[in-house]
């Protein structure tokens, strides 16, 4: 049966039910909050017919998709129902330091049974996500990841707007968790999972309106993997990278997104009912099906082009007066000897010859750099390791301005994927006071040394 465009928009969650699109959960009984969110043990049917014990937001997976409006306040009541402390970091949001969710650096850990109110304004529209910043290998690996969509202040209407959370689970054929981190892999690309999912399903089929204007929001919420996104024999355009709109959309060619990174693409679906579009993930020169899009009937006006999104209000760096700070990412290539008690310590990675050793309430390490509020900085970063690293900075959006490996048209992002032996320059205005984490988003790399913070005062 044909449906109107309005009916399609209102019922899109139902039409896309086959994909188990993350559900929207409003705090109807909590009028003072936009959402009530918990972290707690739960279960998810990742492998058909098999329940896997996970840790999930609101006890399930996929996590609720949280939606905010650009420039408006959002209030989230968070309750920790785990048996260990946790926090929530709002990845990519230029946020007040008190809401950034890094234990000890920006807030005390949220202990079991405790509640914390996250209250902030999202200055930028785009595709973002949320996750803990404690015991990250386990908490993210077991399912505590979710999408945060910030809608444009002036709405840009698509006929289907679909978040796609990409995650490879460390589970066996019985749905039981395997080891989330193995030292020999942590010292290299990271420990890969075994079961690939999109919104919690393996190779799902998602229905889209025939002839409709489609927006796909890819979110790499995996601990480790790089995804190389492509559409098989079908044109599309990249409209945003890591939550930041491009001034001019560019044709989609196979595009890599490392752990923590996002990619928004747009295209006009085929007019014919039952047409198939294969969304693929590349492994080197080979490409494998990730999910399938299938057109269904919908009475829509004729679409002729994909729109541009409004560019976020990112401060323009003053490159002429910028101060340059050098960062060297290195690989030790061997395990650190055990400590005096015989407990193994693994420090495989360093920033400027220093491995992150963690912190506590009374023991904060020195910052990697001390920045002056309002000043422009260029970070000249060199990856001299044999592996790729998605380098992420909290509290700021930076501009990638140069690489020795590829031609760069400057673009805004919060995470840049550095190839082995690549040198990249990023620029930004240090306009957000606080102590901001600066790290690789391969979780095992972060946990074994490739992490630190910068201080803006």
Automatic annotation (TrEMBL):
Cited Pfam families: Cu-oxidase_2, Cu-oxidase_3
Ranges of residues in domain Plastocyanin-like: 47-153, 351-456
Keyword terms, alphabetized: Metal-binding, Oxidoreductase
PROSITE patterns, sorted: MULTICOPPER_OXIDASE2 (PS00080), TAT (PS51318)
Keyword Cell inner membrane: no
Protein name in the entry: Multicopper oxidase family protein
Source organism per UniProt: Spartinivicinus poritis
């Amino acid at each position: 049966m044909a449906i109107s465009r309005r009916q399609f928009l209102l019922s899109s969650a139902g039409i896309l039910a086959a994909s188990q699109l993350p559900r929207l959960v409003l705090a109807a009984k909590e009028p003072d909050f936009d959402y009530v969110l918990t972290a707690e043990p739960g279960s998810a049917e990742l492998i058909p017919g098999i329940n896997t014990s996970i840790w999930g937001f609101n006890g399930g997976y996929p996590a609720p998709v949280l939606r905010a409006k650009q420039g408006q306040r959002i209030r989230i009541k968070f309750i920790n129902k785990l048996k260990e402390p946790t926090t929530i970091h709002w990845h990519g949001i230029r946020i007040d330091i008190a809401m950034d969710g890094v234990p000890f650096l920006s807030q005390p850990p949220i202990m079991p049974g405790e509640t914390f109110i996250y209250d902030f304004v999202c200055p930028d529209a785009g595709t973002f996500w949320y996750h803990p910043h404690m015991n990250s290998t386990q908490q993210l690996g077991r399912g505590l990841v979710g999408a945060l969509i910030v809608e444009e202040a002036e709405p840009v209407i698509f006929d289907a707007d679909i978040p796609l959370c990409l995650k490879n689970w460390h589970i066996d054929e019985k749905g039981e968790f395997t080891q989330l981190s193995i030292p020999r892999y942590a010292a290299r690309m990271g420990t890969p999972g075994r079961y690939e999912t999109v919104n919690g399903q393996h190779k799902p089929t998602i229905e889209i309106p025939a002839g409709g204007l489609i927006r796909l929001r890819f979110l790499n919420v995996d601990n480790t993997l790089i995804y190389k996104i492509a559409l098989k024999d079908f044109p599309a355009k990249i409209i945003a990278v890591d939550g930041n709109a491009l001034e001019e959309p560019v044709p989609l060619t196979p595009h890599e997104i490392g752990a923590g990174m996002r990619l928004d693409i747009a295209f006009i679906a085929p007019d014919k009912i039952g047409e198939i579009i294969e969304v693929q993930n590349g492994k080197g020169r080979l490409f494998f099906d990730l999910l399938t899009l299938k057109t269904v009937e919908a009475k829509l006006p004729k679409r002729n082009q994909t729109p541009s999104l409004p560019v976020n209000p990112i401060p323009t760096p003053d490159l002429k007066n910028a101060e340059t700070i050098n960062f060297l990412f290195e690989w030790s290539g061997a395990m650190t000897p055990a400590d005096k008690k015989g407990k193994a310590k693994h420090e495989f990675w360093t920033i400027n010859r220093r491995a992150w050793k963690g912190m506590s309430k009374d023991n904060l390490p020195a910052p990697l750099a001390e920045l002056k509020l309002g000043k422009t900085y260029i970070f000249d970063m060199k990856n001299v390791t044999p592996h790729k690293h998605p380098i992420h900075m909290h509290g700021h959006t930076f501009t990638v301005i140069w690489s020795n490996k590829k031609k760069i048209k400057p673009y805004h992002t919060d995470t840049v994927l550095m190839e082995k032996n690549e040198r990249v320059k990023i620029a930004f205005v240090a306009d957000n006071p606080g102590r901001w984490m600066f790290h690789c988003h391969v979780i095992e790399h972060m946990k074994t040394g490739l992490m630190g913070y910068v201080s803006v005062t």
